[in-house]
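for the record, two folds in this file. i put them one after another cuz i was lazy. first one right below, seq on top, C-alpha cells after. the second one comes after a little note so u can tell where it starts
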Amino acid sequence: IFKVKGGLFVQDQYFTLLEAGVNLIASCLLAMYIGLPGIFFGTLISTLTTVFWNSPRLVYKHLFDKKVFSYFKTYTFYACLTIGTGILTVWLADLMVRDQTFVSIVARGCISAFVPCLVYSVLFYKTNEFIYIKDVVLHVLWRGKEVKLPKFFIK
C-alpha cells in the first residue's frame, strides 16, 4: 500500500516480471516432484525472493529515508512473538484439555482466544497503537460515554 501511495512504480518495474519468472519456474519444478503443494511452495519461494525484501527496501529508502534494517528487525520480533505465543497457547491447551469432546474443542477455542490477547495486552499496553485501539473499542462498546479505566490501562 505504501509503495502504491508513494508512487514508487518505476523503481521496481521489472521485479514483477522477475517474480513471475521465479514463480513459474519454481512452481513447475516443484509440481513435477511433489504435486499440487509444489505450486504453493513455488509461489512462496517467488514471494520470499522478490517482493518480501524489495517492497520494504523501496519504501524505506525512497519514502522514509531510513535503513530497511529497522523494518526487518521489527518484523523478526513480531514473527518470533507470534510463534512463541502460538507455542505457549498450544502448550497450555494441551496441559488444560485432555479429552476429545465438543466441550474440549470449545475450551481449546477459549484458550486460543484468551492467551494471545493476554500476551499482547501485557506486552503492548503502553504503546500508542494499543491505546488508540483500546479507546476505539471502548468508544464503540459504550457508545461514546466516558469510561473510567483502571490505572493499569492509563498511560
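(here's the note) second protein begins now
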Amino acid sequence: NGDDSSVTMDFGTVQNPAFLASDIFASVSAGTDPFNTFGGNGSGSIEVACNINSITATFEIGPGQNSSNILREMTNPLAAGTPGFGINYRLYSLTERTPASECRPDGTKLALFGNGNIIAGNPFRINVFGRIFATDANRAVAGIYTDVATGTLTF
C-alpha cells in the first residue's frame, strides 16, 4: 500500500568480543529467535497489507550505507582508521540462516514464503534474521556499530 516504516535489528551488547567463540544472532520477526544469545532483537516487525494479488512477489534488502556488493558492514565512527572500524554481518529470510536464504547486498531478490504468493486483504509479516560470524565480531572495539539498509517489496 505504499507505506514507509522502519524497524531496528539489535545484535545486543557483547563484552570482550575478541574472545568470542560463537556467532551473534538477532532478528526482526513476529516470534522469538531461538539462536539469539546476546539479548538483542528487533523493535517491531515488517508488516505488509496489499490490496492486490501477486504470484511473483519478491523482497530485497539493499546494500546499506557501508556495504559492498559482496558483504554488508556495520561501522563504528569511534574506531575510524583501525581494523575494528567495520564488521561484516549477514541478513537472512529464514531463522536457520542458510546460504540459500541470505539477503545478499548484490540485489538478489527472495521469493516470499518460498513461492511469492500474496493474497489481497491478507496481511502478512516479513521476517529478517541477522548474523555476525564470531571471526568478524572478534575485530570489534568499544563503541556502537550501525548500518542502515532499505527493504523493497516488489509484486
